[in-house]
Batch of 3 targets.
Target 1
Amino acid sequence: MAEREELTWELFGSASKELAQAIADSGYEPDLILSIARGGLFVAGALGYALDVKNLHVMNVEFYTGVDQRLDLPVMLPPVPNAVDLAGAKVLVADDVADTGATLKLVRDFCADHVAEVRCAVIYEKPHSQVQCEYVWRRTDKWINFAWSKEPPVVRREGQVLDA
């Protein structure tokens, strides 16, 4: 098996704090954080607390169906945030990883026509990502074992697209 990057809960705590500090140091003050579910929920929550941003939104995007298995294109799942709620805002898009960057590009492009400014923050960015995020904790070309998705689900639901 290829070498993997391991993000433990403890390391995630350090990573999210360092990511928040980089955002604060840049002077960017987002009005809201737009989380890409599911992995981005953890990142957005941590950044929300660290940056004192209470306005958190969620966008559900499905792309990965397993380890190195993905759909042809990322798909937005309902409910899609109302563009009116984003109008004129400074938005920080939060996700766990920019792998191909296709998911982040979909969300960033969705926001771009409606918001004052959009920036992206991720824990990891891969070299082949089509989106270069403004805020990145670490760059890697390895597969990443995230603390929240490393273990199999307690329950597998029929008809659900789940991470392996």
Target 2
Amino acid sequence: MESLTNLWTLFQYFILGIVQGITEPIPVSSSGHLIIARELFNVEARGLSFEIFVNFASLLAVILIYRKDIVRLIAQTWRFLFKGDKNAKSDFMFVIYLVIATIPVGVVGVLFGDVLGEALSGIRVVGVTLLITALFLWIIRNLQGRKQDGDLSTKDAIIVGLAQAVATTPGISRSGATIVASMLVGMKKETALRFSFLLYIPVSLGTGILEIPEIVRDPAMGQLWGPYLLAFITAFIASYFGLKLFMDIMRRGKLEYFAYYCVAVGLLALFFL
């Protein structure tokens, strides 16, 4: 009987890892889907430690996919700052805009993170915010921006940063909010994708570092290290292929697919869960 219970627990966390992994990079809200999955499978992983743990797996997948961009930006920033290479200024400014865009979510996270997580984690809230996500994805579905990496401004970075801060609300997709904002300020799809996911790296990394004490103190980490590890591995794999899928759909200009999906899941959360 105990072995069956252990297998069921592993299955539950396997599903949570897949849900986190697939929905983190695509614009459908990973936090909202984790809340829905917990309701469906009755998993009591309600603390932030599990979400942060599997979120780190998604972070590693994003870093793997954008590793060449990361290396280039670091190298170009070094050349601009310490070798005076004017040709590296565009990449250096791109890094500065990423820093600027990170500030709003950092402020919101420090001041209101716990409050937002507790107060807005209900299934009905997730249903409403998924419908809001669908609306904005529908609005930008046919936008064709012109701004490339070297055309961005401080104003663009602030607007995208504020959108990312709004996405601390469960059900509002982080990638969706930042890509919507990026395209509304005129970025090309490729630039919007790159800016959104490179922006994800410092936010996710910073959150993980700040929450290390909570993860260490969480008794579930000791009791459920096997299921947590399984969820971590599945989240990493699913995030990698989820982001690849999203990049392909963005290139083909089919963002309305995600809008339809968010409407369906939002209505499910509102009326059937």
Target 3
Amino acid sequence: MTLEGTITRTNDNTFTGWIASLTFDVDIAISENPHKKTEKHPDFEITAKSTRNRSIRIGSAWNATSQAGNDYLSVAINFGTGEIRANAVKTETDGEYRFIPYSN
């Protein structure tokens, strides 16, 4: 899947940004999961705004570390057309991450 997007970490450990493909283009917010009770639960909730400006949860994200020791977010998002899996990896810009979709 062709997928582009970036998020930027804010001072309060949330992220804001956008994600887009040929079928969607949305602004997103990623915030800590207030319902996390076990290690298996997602670390973050991903939300977007509906056409009526309602906040809708569209996915989850987990903190992860690569074998090389680099921190990233493992992301699962659903826009109503099925789940999209991607990683959000750090860029050279401080606090910025870009999305890299999983290969199917």
